[in-house]
Input
Amino acid sequence: MASAGGWSRGEQARYFRELGPYFVASILLLLAGAAYGIATSAYAPRLSAPSAEALREFTRLFLGLPKPYLALAIFLNNGLKTLAVVVLGTFAGILPLIFLLVNGYVLGLVLHSSMESGGMPAFFLAVAPHGTIELPAILLGTSIGLMLGAHGIKWALGKEVKPLGIELARGLRFYLIVIVPLLLLAALIEAFITAAITSK
Output
């Protein structure tokens, strides 16, 4: 049975299964970064202070934007970063690995700050509406990047018969068909629903 983008449901399901180990690896790398962020914030606050300030400055860029522009800004930010992770993942998967560790680290800083201020319920309320869609979508992107990195290494070593370009084309098709709509939906929820919740 044909589906979006000319992919049958069976082909999409098969690609999902191929991504499985890399999705698990993405989660573990994100958690490792988060653990380091929490530890740094708790035991070496001077070390984490510049990162926390940079995060606040980045957040200020989005403050005050009308909701449609905010949704567009969020979508472009997440969409372009995820696309870069997919495409540049072909270089041994280095960029997705760094991306996961860095974003995990930032998440750890925010989590620790929320725990310290007693604002964990507010934090989850502010993240859950869009985060339950956005985070899996981004992790799917990093999974593709990591898988392409593995294919690239095999190809460089002469252990991969299928050209890397074919795998990249499959990854980009999945990005367009599955990830982009999820990121767009998450951006709309964050701009119109999460922003309304957090402003109360």
Summary: The chain has one domain: 7-41+72-198. The chain is about 85% helix and 0% strand. The CA atoms of residues 40 and 138 lie 24 Å apart. The longest helix spans residues 120-156.
